[in-house]
Amino acid sequence: MTQGSELVIRVADLKKHYGDVRAVDGVTFEVARGEVFGMLGPNGAGKTTTIEVLEGLRPPDSGTVEVLGLDVLRHPQSIKQRIGVQLQSVSLYPRLTVTELLDLFGSFFNHHVPTKQLIDAVDLGERAHAWAMNLSGGQQQRLSIALALVNDPELVFLDEPTTGLDPQARRSLWDLIRGLQDKGTSVMLTTHYMEEATELCNRVAIMDHGHILEMGAVSDLIGRRFRERAVFFDSNPKLPMELLARLGGVSRAAQEEGQTVLYSNDVPGTVGALLATADEVSVEPRNLGIRQATLEDVFLDLTGRALRD
Amino acid sequence: MGTLLGLTVANVKSLARDRAALFWTIFFPIMFVFLFGWIFGGSGGSKISVGFVDQDGTQASGGLRQALAGVTLLSLHDGTLDAEKAAMQHGDVSAVIVVPKGLQDAFVQARTGNAASIAVQVYGDPSQNQTTQVVQGAVAQVANGFNLAALGGSAILTVSQLTLQSTSISSVAYLVPSILAMALMQLGIFAAIPLVQQREKGILKRIGATPLARWKLVGSNVLLRLMVAIVDAVLIIGIGFAVFNVHIVGNLLEVGAIVLLGSASFLAIGFALASFLKTEEQAQGVVQVVQLPMMFLSGIFFSFDFLPGFLQTVARFLPLTYLGDALRQVMVNGAQVAPLGADLAILAGWLVVCLGISARSFRWE
Ligand SMILES: Nc1ncnc2c1ncn2[C@@H]1O[C@H](COP(=O)(O)OP(=O)(O)OP(=O)(O)O)[C@@H](O)[C@H]1O
Ligand SMILES: [Mg+2]
After folding, report:
1. Is there a contact between A96 and B10 if contact means CB atoms under 8 Å apart?
2. What are the φ and ψ backbone dihedral angles of A285, each rounded to 5 degrees?
3. In this structure, is residue A307 part of a structural domain?
4. Entry pTM
5. Does this complex have an ipTM over 0.90?
6. What is the extent of the structural domain holding A257?
7. How far apart are the CA of B28 and the nearest CA of chain A, in angstroms?
8. For residue B86, how many other CB atoms are within 10 A of its CB?
9. CB distance A108–B210 less than 8 Å?
């Protein structure tokens, strides 16, 4: 984020507790106009709570929360005119059609985008006259995103926008979000998909237990932690971790989802040593491969667990 | 204003497309009208039972009786005035004809050249206008015949009309306002269900994220229900009139005003209930627990004189008791539980209290 650029979100030391649950426990971040900002974190991290405070749906316990330069507690109505909201879980009036719902929500705002244009944007043309209750899960999700865009907002909040979408619909939504960014709309989204965050977000915050653990551009986050690349293969009991960790060039060894990952500064050396060791116990490492470290690795490193359980 | 209208249209569409909700809000009360109408209304073609009280006991009054008995529509039932009035109040007879003492004397006087007149009294129930008119018409015709036969048409025998309200629970006229009261009560209380549904589904929360003013969200729900209340009233009164001959004696504007006040009070109760209910299943159950006993305790279908003492006390607190009472008084001039002003004041009281509760306790998510 460049210094002096206009901020669309400014949050300082935000706290929101539910009884003993410290859903959000001192969070500070800023989003500049035109940015796509992602919030990543496991279930219960506090992403939805944070985003709903920003949307004016929940009052914060303490801290500063400004959206589009306005205090959320003091100017909720003006903020709501100018933002778009997609909630994590919502079903709409079940017996209204897609067109009727978009018309209805449009009427709540001072100005709104033509319904036809929104329907085309989320590719719901064939279902324009279907009742909301008869849409598939992915179609409902797309309708809910169209509703978030009904007022041509300056800032859009998307809470897990691609959960439940098939890969093709997910990619077309990515295109939609890139299109929003191209025309200068700012976006704050939450996701469980590292790939999505990497593809879309200028910056991400990794959140857990109500705290932001790390924040920055995806490449910076990876670079900050991992100068190494990862050598990976299907785990094998004949190749114990203690042994592998001592191989040449290996800085760390980890297990993820049935695979062994060796982070190495010297990939050719490590692979050579690995194959030699494997040969001694007469096994062949299956699905052997090499990759850059990913956001997933950052997350694993930060929280000690995978993003999706 | 446009958004309020748009939201109301959305609510109307949602209701119109929901068969179950339509059934409960519109067809169910109409079914009641037909059901009770057929059970209690008797068959339309049979004779009208009329009490006949002969206080003269002369040849002349005997002749009058014979003439009336000759009218095919009437079937006479003899008795004393008190007995016949009681019979009418129980719904056993639809009108009472009283021949006062002095009938024969009047005719004797007239024949000797003195001026004389005497009135036959007909007690009718104004809520059963059609029946009353038939009886009065028949009596007037017979009286006319008597006058003609006696002295070429001078009006010795006249007919005076008196009203006597039949409070019989078997009277359809009594039931139409009761069914309307029931329909309005259910309409209001059942409003809790879609509200809880919309909250559970997150619709209220989602709309809360738009700049729409909350009063418009509430207002559109109120408008929808008041519109349905008017539809219910028109259908119930219309069917009562067209099929079961029940006439509204009061001013229709007054009826309309009471319909709106009553619906508003029960809507406020529905909103207050929705403030405390979390899930749709809960709402379905609680709404029944509230509306069923109210229906049976409030004296809209049974006079609550039959209830044990403590239940009568309960009944005196129920808003439905007073809505039923107010509608009965205005629509068919029915016997009253309380003066009309008191009925309306109590309904307004429920409205204010429940609105207060809703305003304090209603949750949007
Ligand atoms: N209304 C509420 N009342 C009580 N606790 C709540 C409430 N809303 C959220 N919480 C709790 O606050 C914590 C944070 O929840 P939140 O929904 O913000 O998580 P999240 O990061 O969005 O998770 P997910 O990825 O599952 O959507 C959780 O422990 C949750 O149980
Ligand atoms: Mg969430």
Report:
1. yes
2. -60, 120
3. no
4. 0.75
5. no
6. 227-292
7. 22
8. 15
9. yes
